[in-house]
User: What shape does this take?
Amino acid sequence: QFVESGGGLVQPGDSLSLSCTASGVYFTVITAAWWRRAPGKERELVAQITRGGDIKYEDSVKGRFTISRDNTKSSVYLQMNNLRPEDTALYYCNAAVPFEDAWGQGTQVTVSS
Assistant: This one.
């Protein structure tokens, strides 16, 4: 199970920091990831980080978002800077190849002026 937190309502250009804690999975061996689902759109993979620290980002967030992990806390983080209205979505964490029965409630990020 994954539990996300840290979302909120912000203005364009603002920053948010998301956190996620995993339980019931071997967190240290998985490629952890942040996903998002915007209204009316499919869920998309935003960022991922391997157990060794290799990172990939979806093109639209490169240079603005930073993913990190703390294996001692079974946690993954997403620092989001220079937020845009199109970043508005429900953000989830999971593995990059997700555990379908482990999705959490997500955390809502709304970027609006």
User: Anything to note?
Assistant: The mean pLDDT is 95. The longest strand covers residues 16-22.
